[in-house]
Automatic annotation (TrEMBL):
Residues passing through the membrane, by range: 52-75, 96-115, 147-165, 177-196, 208-224, 299-318, 330-348
GO molecular function terms attached to this record: acyltransferase activity, transferring groups other than amino-acyl groups
Gene Ontology process terms (BP): lipopolysaccharide biosynthetic process
Acyltransferase domain ranges (all copies): 22-346
One GO CC term on file: membrane
Species, as recorded: Microbacterium testaceum (Aureobacterium testaceum)
Protein name: Acyltransferase 3 domain-containing protein
A Pfam family annotated for this UniProt entry: Acyl_transf_3
Keywords of this entry: Membrane, Transmembrane, Transmembrane helix
Length: 392
């Protein structure tokens, strides 16, 4: 990361009116990491192939981290001060809630038929999932639709955004740099905070402990928009993100639950997001901006919400739902699960997500304010991704 400019006037400001198509494409790439991680968790591959698959995709759960950073970055990039908090909340509700309800319904069907192991024990955790608050109780984190725990985090991020963006906009560039450093420190400390907290908390699923990732995305977007900072080029940040991906599995500092590797992961992912955004904002182009990646990125939210249900349903006829097949057979089964999940996601995107969002936004009393928070990436941000993630 290059040092922030010290001049009061931006030297090379990005164009905040530009769309950021590369970030839409990145959403799909991130969803594929999570898909690979869940294939590993359900053990499609057995033997040596399973070992290799686990080596590559054990860290795939960090795709949720990337979604959280993306969410903060995109919301800050498209932020319009004239939009009221009520309008902002309504846009976010319209973006994620209709598909969330459909995802919960599909999870209930799967639990009652092919995948009984995801059945929610009790009415309270199920209602909490419907209301997107179940992640605040660690034992309920995967109630309802197991993938929707990240939407609980996103809902909290959305609730916080109008209160976070105002002071962050007013901060100096030097102070924003301090926020970046503090966010990374809190990421490393999150497991330790969860371990010593008098209240039950999980570093993985408690929204408050995932907030620094979102704040980091917001802060870097503000730095880039103002021209106070330019990230490295993609040819540097992409391999750095691969290293960060691997470091997510690094052990903690001995005798503690402090994980510097997690901070390295989050920092490298944030640099990747910023470098892609900078390329788009300054009139460049990346492979992620190509039409196919754009279409896949637009269905990534629906894909995320259904992919784990499909993976578990397809494998349900094997003992304990874990096929552990030779690589050729496992690959065919994985392709079948992928195709089914993508087909369902495309239908949900076209038949539910788009029309429901349009219908709900008709009731936004601030319609004269432009579509604000999602405009920068073709209309929206993902709500989340792995064991969840809402990229959103």
């Amino acid at each position: 990361m290059t040092a922030p400019a010290t001049a009061s006037r931006p030297a090379n400001p990005a164009n905040p009116a530009r769309h950021l198509p590369s970030l839409t494409g990145l959403r799909w790439a991130t969803a594929m990491l999570i898909f690979g991680h869940h294939l590993m968790a359900v053990e499609y591959f057995g033997g040596t192939a399973g070992t290799v698959w686990a080596f590559v995709f054990e860290a795939g759960k960090t795709g949720v981290t990337l979604f959280f950073i993306l969410s903060g970055f995109v919301l800050a990039w498209g932020h319009k001060p004239q939009q009221s908090a009520g309008s902002f909340y309504w846009h976010r509700f319209a973006r994620i809630y209709p598909l969330h309800l459909v995802g919960v319904g599909l999870a209930l069907v799967a639990a009652a038929t092919l995948v009984p192991e995801i059945r929610t024990a009790g009415r309270a955790p199920l209602v909490a999932n419907v209301l997107l608050v179940n992640g605040w109780v660690p034992d309920w984190w995967q109630a309802g639709n197991p993938a929707s725990w990240s939407l609980v985090c996103e809902a909290f991020f959305y609730l916080s955004f109008p209160f976070l963006i105002r002071p962050l906009v007013r901060l100096s560039n030097r102070a924003r740099g301090g926020v970046v450093v503090a966010s990374l420190v809190l990421v490393a400390l999150a497991p330790q905070i969860a371990a010593i907290s008098p209240l039950p908390m999980s570093a993985a699923s408690t929204p408050l402990l995932r907030l620094p990732e979102f704040v980091l995305g917001v802060t870097l977007a503000l730095l880039l928009k103002g021209g106070a900072w330019m990230p490295w080029k993609l040819r540097y940040t992409l391999p750095l993100a691969v290293v960060g991906y691997a470091l997510s599995e690094a052990p903690p500092i001995p005798g503690t639950d402090i994980h510097p590797g997690l901070a390295a992961t989050v920092g490298s992912f944030a640099l990747l997001v910023a470098s892609l955004a900078a390329a788009d904002a300054h009139g460049g182009s990346t492979f992620l901006a190509r039409p196919l990646w754009q279409e896949l990125g637009r269905v990534s939210f629906a894909f995320y919400l259904v992919h784990l249900l499909v993976i578990a349903s397809v494998s349900s006829s094997w003992p304990d739902g874990h096929p552990q097949l030779p690589w050729r057979h496992a690959l065919l089964l994985a392709l079948a699960a992928f195709s089914i999940a993508l087909a369902i996601a495309w239908v949900l995107h076209r038949a539910v997500e788009i029309p429901a969002q349009k219908w709900l936004l008709r009731y936004d009393r601030s319609r004269h304010v432009s579509e604000g928070t999602g405009a920068a990436v073709g209309g929206e941000t993902h709500a989340s991704a792995a064991g969840s993630p809402a990229a959103r």
